[in-house]
Design brief:
Layout (H helix, E strand, L loop, with lengths): L15 H7 L9 E8 L5 E3 L7 E4 H13 L4 E6 L19 H12 L4 E6 L21 H18 L3 E4 L6 H11 L6 E8 L6 H6 L21 H12 L4 E5 L5 H11 L3 E5 L1 H12 L5 H15 L3 E4 L2 H8 L1
Parallel strand pairs: 1-3, 1-4, 1-10, 4-5, 5-6, 6-7, 7-8, 8-9, 9-10
Antiparallel strand pairs: 2-3
Helix pairs in contact: 2-3, 4-5, 7-8
This protein binds ligand PBG.
The site of ligand PBG has 11 residues, from helix 6.
Length: about 325
């Protein structure tokens, strides 16, 4: 094997043109999915205090954000509704209302900016009074099969409104197969399913729960359905099941602390893998920036490049618009 000084690894690093030429990983706006929070009203921008730079937008302004995103080459938006407290119930029935905030936003954006993809969250937590992702029994246990029936109806409501990708984030067993069958049954052959296949019971979701209005509502925790951060083998089983049930792509969530899972999933299954750089991760970066401990652009680009290197096709990130502008 060639060794020093015949081989100097630094030769290729010495100039920018050379570094660009040997880069193994690229990051482009096409790799970004932008999560947007939606709120009632017209002309409303409601900042999310825990997520500096992130707001809840009324439907008309979501359309404006969609135009910006499309112009910058962001291929897809992910929608999350902040359901008014008065509409939240034990059974989360507002999730099935074809005129709920989510559906109105989908229709408005598909109408005005048809070229951008829309990914919708399938789970009941933005609609339930207890903020769990599903229906609960008298003891607070989240019921699997009963929840799945509801999620199927929710996914259909979203597909009818024009959703391009439905993304179940609830972690019920068997829901991908049930949703796939229902979509086929109604003729939605090209509606994709991006399964939140390996979703962990994480402490990084706090600001998100606040953003969708679930803050303070959650009874107990989600460890009875979301995964234990200690487990990796289990993530591979979850992914295998969701793919067998008809998922088009899979997601790992949270992001940066779980890149080992991304890599294992990519190597084992060779399918499109996405990761969600979640609210707590974004909040940590922004806190470091505010403290003068990090440079936003550099740290955001570095983390997103790390997702790509680990094997992600794309990343859901609250920095999407900012990064797309930087890359432009
Ligand atoms: C719930 C859902 C959560 C997120 C996306 N969908 C939170 C949770 O499971 O409690 C978190 C996203 C983020 O933190 O940015 N279905």
């Amino acid at each position: 094997m060639t060794s020093f000084p015949a081989l100097r690894m630094r030769r290729a690093r010495a100039a920018g043109w050379s570094r660009a030429m040997v880069a193994e990983t690229s990051l482009s706006p096409a790799n970004l999915i932008w999560p947007l929070f939606i709120t009632e009203g017209v002309g409303v921008e409601d900042p999310v205090v825990m997520l500096p730079g992130v707001s809840r937008w009324s439907v008309d302004l979501v359309v404006a954000r969609a135009r910006e995103a499309a112009a910058l080459g962001i291929p897809c938006l992910a929608f999350f509704p902040n359901t008014p407290r008065a509409l939240r119930t034990e059974d989360g029935r507002e999730a099935l209302n074809p005129d709920n905030l989510m559906c109105r936003a989908i229709r408005a954006v598909k109408d005005a900016v048809p070229e951008i993809g829309i990914l919708t969250d399938v789970a009941l937590d933005p609609y339930t009074s207890h903020a769990h992702d599903g229906l609960t029994d008298a003891r607070g246990y989240v019921l699997n099969d009963e929840t799945t029936e509801q999620l199927v109806l929710q996914a259909l409501v979203q597909a009818r409104a024009g959703a391009d990708i439905v993304a179940p984030s609830d972690m019920m067993d068997g829901r991908v197969a049930a949703i796939r069958a229902a979509l086929e049954g109604e003729g939605y052959r090209n509606v994709q399913i991006m399964a939140y296949a390996a979703k962990y019971a994480s402490a990084f979701y706090g600001p998100f729960r606040d953003a969708v209005g679930s803050g303070g509502l959650l009874k107990g925790d989600k460890r009875g359905y979301q995964m234990d951060p200690a487990n990796g083998e289990e993530a591979l089983r979850e992914v295998a099941l969701d793919l067998a049930e008809g998922a088009d792509s899979v997601m790992v969530k949270p992001g940066l602390p779980y890149l080992d899972i991304v890599r294992r999933v990519k190597e084992r299954f060779a399918v499109p893998v996405f990761a969600y750089q979640v609210s707590g991760e974004y909040a940590m970066i922004e806190a470091a920036v505010a403290a003068g401990a990090a440079d936003r652009d550099a740290i955001a680009l570095e983390t997103l490049t790390a997702f790509r290197r680990a094997g992600c096709s794309g990343v859901l990130t609250y920095h999407a618009l900012h990064i797309a502008r930087l890359l432009a």
